[in-house]
Design brief:
The chain is mostly helical and about 220 residues long. The chain is built from 12 helices and no strands. Helix 2 packs antiparallel against helix 6 and helix 5 crosses helix 6.
Length: about 220
């Protein structure tokens, strides 16, 4: 099956299985900080750290200007707090330099070409292609496709991207392959599938609704 036709089929099956994800966007600065907190940890610890940070410092200006040790203490549940705390403050200072007279925001990225917006975000310390794409897609509704470990694993097993493709290259390949209007639902539903069925260890191929379209499944049965 041609890959774009395969994506259409897989998208429909994922919607049937997991539903159409609802949008509940954060502002872009909040999404950026939350995504930095999510690096190398799970969603539960990320959320605990984010909630603690916002409880202690209600504005991002307060986070930027706080003693670094206090920021580190607040985000400790996310892990790597000694690296993430200074990194978050450095990012917020960089944003503040854009217009010191205004509250911290990066909404200007919505008006840039996606490639330029990604380039600006990835110029920030600790921001790679996945974090940049999450901010653009989730908060600014721009056509960027984030690739996390679940998306990389599942799309490789399905044969949508070639085996051995790097996560960075996978962003470009999947953006070209998946229709932009499906990015949000496809991204979240592939993650849901990776967590529930297509696990890294011992995938549940016997119950997978995508098995007829999966190269990993057909190869493992050969």
């Amino acid at each position: 099956m041609e890959r774009k036709a395969k994506v259409r089929t897989i998208h429909k099956l994922l919607i049937r299985t997991y539903g159409e994800p609802e949008r509940s966007p954060m502002d872009a600065v909040s999404e950026l900080v939350c995504t930095i907190l999510s690096q190398n940890t799970n969603d539960t610890n990320r959320d605990r750290a984010y909630t603690a940070l916002r409880a202690k410092f209600p504005t991002w200006e307060q986070v930027r200007d706080a003693p670094t040790r206090q920021v580190i203490a607040a985000i400790r549940p996310a892990g790597l707090a000694n690296q993430k705390g200074p990194r978050i403050q450095k990012v917020l200072r960089r944003i503040g330099e854009l217009d010191p007279s205004q509250p911290l925001n990066i909404d200007f990225l919505a008006d840039l070409p996606v490639s330029k917006a990604k380039q600006w975000l990835m110029s920030l310390d600790g921001v790679g292609p996945k974090t940049a794409a999450i901010v653009l897609l989730f908060s600014l509704n721009r056509p960027a496709f984030p690739v996390d470990t679940h998306v990389h694993r599942v799309t490789t097993r399905l044969g949508l991207i070639p085996a051995g493709t790097t996560a960075e290259k996978a962003h470009d390949l999947l953006e070209a392959l998946v229709p932009a209007e499906w990015y949000y639902a496809f991204h979240l539903n592939v993650i849901a599938h990776g967590r529930a069925v297509c696990k890294a260890q011992r995938p549940k191929c016997e119950i997978c609704p995508l098995q007829r379209h999966c190269e990993y499944f057909s190869t493992s049965r050969a």
